[in-house]
Known about the structure:
Distance between the termini: 60 Å
Radius of gyration: 25 Å
Largest sheet: 7 strands, mixed
Number of helices: 14
Shape: globular
Amino acid sequence: MSTAPVWSVDPRTGKPREQVAAEASEREVDEAVRAAWAARDALADRGVRAALLRTAAELLDEAAEHVVEAADAETALGPVRLTGELARTTAQLRAFADVAEEGSFLDVRIDHADPNRTPPWPDLRRMKIPLGVVAVYSASNFPLAFSVPGGDTASALAAGCPVVVKAHPDHPATSELCVSLLRRAAVRVGLPQDVVALVHGFDAGIALVRHPLVAAAGFTGSVRGGRALFDAAAARPVPIPFHGELGSLNPVVVTEAAAQERGEPIGAGLAASMTLGVGQFCTKPGFVLAPAGPGGDALLKALTAAVSDAEAGVMLDLRMRDAFVAGVAERAALDGVEAPVTPGSGGEHTVSAGFLTVAASVLAARGPHDLLLEECFGPVTVVARYEHPSEIGAVLSRLPGNLTATLHLSAEEGAGQDGGGAASLLAALTGLAGRVLVDGWPTGVAVAPAQHHGGPYPATTSTSTSVGATAVERWVRPVTYQDVPEGLLPGELREGVVGVPRWVDGRWEAPTPPSP
């Protein structure tokens, strides 16, 4: 039985470019998963995993011109943006190679037998092991960094888990090119190419999360799509972890003192952040609490000027464009909502940036204006103006979970000289988000060991991060070996010289450097 063709489409025109694949049948999904499962033992050596990740980065760098060209043709994100995204992607692969080699994520703990304790302790040795095959669902807005060669794939491979990626329909040709490079990297370092595989199609995505040999899943996308897959993962006979990034409003609070001190720079910075990438970043500041009065007026004046100068842009696909146009029109039609710069259609295939304003008081209680507290994907933000600081807390208490939350303070508030008001606001925002910023903008997620890219639901479905070194922890589980003979233990748990940090009898031991 034939399956539907998969076409690469030019979002600048809406016209198909080429057929690049066919949607995977349930049988083909089964074959891909079983091949990945059969290859899992080949990833047992952490050094080999590191070599795979570094080789994949090298091959992507060598093919940079072709990768960027393919991604731009399918996403209209532009060569400059995509060149930067590719650099981030290869840096991410190399960073997870370091994570695999260093081994802290194994969380090795050894407690030697102690018959003098009450009750006596047996010999206990604990570490984390790979879960198995990981399903990765690519993002629309990051065709590289959150797709086939992205952070979910890199962290899963670092953990020792084979990966089957479900390609996003907005960039299938880019996905095919990238998976070919990853599979070539596997062969080059002596691994089966099936440690990474790719499938296309909506039905294939459902079959993938339901497959009995899939042990976990990572997703970046919409609340609707992510929740459907999350529910499917939980409804399996054997439920599996589903690490989904679903949606985020990314609220910003501007204090009255901050607006008075630097309202214009804040307005200009907000415009740059909310229009970046045609407003298609998961960390776009989509909701702002700003004061009424002169300081807030200065902020809005600068925001109006900067957003008015923004050029119309092409969104990732026509479906998203239509959803954006309809979404902003529905919000703008609400009573009391004004549009100093009207967002919406910028042409047959483009959208124009804009923003909406409303009194914060109308958002303090449930009602039709709740729509303004939901993410609208694209270049728009909502500015809610408060008359009294008490309105800030009332509105924040109604917000859902977020990836980020931002606070803009005056110099005096930032120095802690406001009697604790700034600290209270920071605490309120901390309860809402996984990353809290002061006097900055949330677009741009540094790939660093201390990074956390996640947040309370619906931002994510788990407490884990999808960016940074600790993303690897999503794909491992702890096992304790009790009174197991030395020769049968994993190398990291044996006595003597080991190459990973570990706790031994309650004391921290750094890894012993190798002999010269």
